[in-house]
Amino acid sequence: MSVPSCVSPLSAAGDGGRFGGKAAQLAAARGAGLPVPDGWALGWDEVEALVRRDRHGPEVEAALRAAVAGCGPVAVRSSAVGEDSHDASFAGAHLTVLGLVGGDAVVHGVREVHASAVHPGALAYRDRLAVDGAIRMGVVVQEMVDADVAGVLFTRNPLTGADELVIEASWGLGEAVVSGLVTPDHIRASPDGRILESVIGEKDVAIRLTCDGLARETAVPPDLAGMPCLRDEQVQQLHGLVRACNEVYADTAHDIEFAFVGDSLYLLQRRPITHG
């Protein structure tokens, strides 16, 4: 489907000064053939026009509605200028809205993400890191992956700084991991992918997509909650994804969000590891 000019395909959103850090990182990954779900990006100026309903706002809103028409559920993710950078990740500071279906829901999601830039937590983060300048919030609209297993991967131990892979994963969508809803499985692996440690977490809740596309908390059966959610073969697939990211990004210290649907691995987000 053709995409109106004021809504860009995610693969064309490589200008971080316009589309923000998250969009630029994902555009690089898609351009290199990494398994990134398809989607679109709005530059910060288009987001401002839509939210403020200025003279270009109706055009942007109409283009966004046309882009998502007929699509399944999408996620609307923040992509502020400077976000997911070497100096400031803004991880958890801005909003992600999951499981949106239809133009009304997506437009509302964009407005919610834009508003999250001035939430007290986000402003405190900017103050703590002395991030100057106007807040410029781009947005990524990305097809949802109905994950069986999802989580995060660091290529350097975030606690010790050790040169090793640290993987945290749970059943369902990765939001259960990043929001702290569960104690995820914890895996440490050497840089060559050899598993060093595997600790099973308490994964009694999962976030899954319902038949109407909404993201909802569901109980995990007790026998499944205590089982490892990643097989050794999937850990090796993640190691392969790390090697692929090493070929794309100059900084090989990766903070990755991933999802598995069966044995198919998806890269949902990549940022450099930061201390902020």
TrEMBL record:
Alphabetized UniProt keyword annotations: Kinase, Pyruvate, Transferase
InterPro entries, per database record: ATP_grasp_subdomain_1 (IPR013815), PEP_Utilizing_Enz (IPR051549), PPDK_AMP/ATP-bd (IPR002192)
Gene3D superfamilies linked to this entry: ATP-grasp fold, A domain, ATP-grasp fold, B domain
Residues annotated as domain Pyruvate phosphate dikinase AMP/ATP-binding: 50-275
Protein's organism: Geodermatophilus sabuli
GO MF annotation: an example: ATP binding
Top-level taxonomic group: Bacteria
The name this protein goes by in its record: Pyruvate, water dikinase
